[in-house]
Design goal:
- The structure is a single chain.
- By secondary structure, the protein is an alpha+beta fold.
- It has one domain: Ubiquitin-like (UB roll), CATH 3.10.20.90.
- It is about 30% helix and about 40% strand.
- It is globular, with a radius of gyration of 12 Å.
């Protein structure tokens, strides 16, 4: 089984995630898992690739992972 590695920037803190499938749902799950301690009560508002393109679909995820090294930036908002 293939896995896909990405670095996720959350306000300067860098996390490493591994995806087993290139799907938005799986990407969201992995980001929420690694950022849980900092954002347990927050909502994931945006995921952007290194060119600041929003990742909103499975096709966007596939496009972002065509690069050798994947850097993503995330933004959260308060859930209340």
């Amino acid at each position: 089984m293939s896995s896909f590695k990405a670095f996720v920037n959350d306000k300067g803190k860098i996390y490493t995630i591994m995806l087993t499938e290139l799907a938005l749902k799986h990407l969201n799950e992995q980001i929420l898992q690694v950022t849980h301690s900092a954002h347990a009560e927050d909502v994931l508002a945006a995921i952007m690739d290194e060119e600041e393109n929003c990742i909103e679909t499975d096709e966007n995820v596939i496009r972002a992972f065509k690069k050798d090294t994947v850097y993503l930036t995330v933004q959260f908002r308060s859930s209340f």
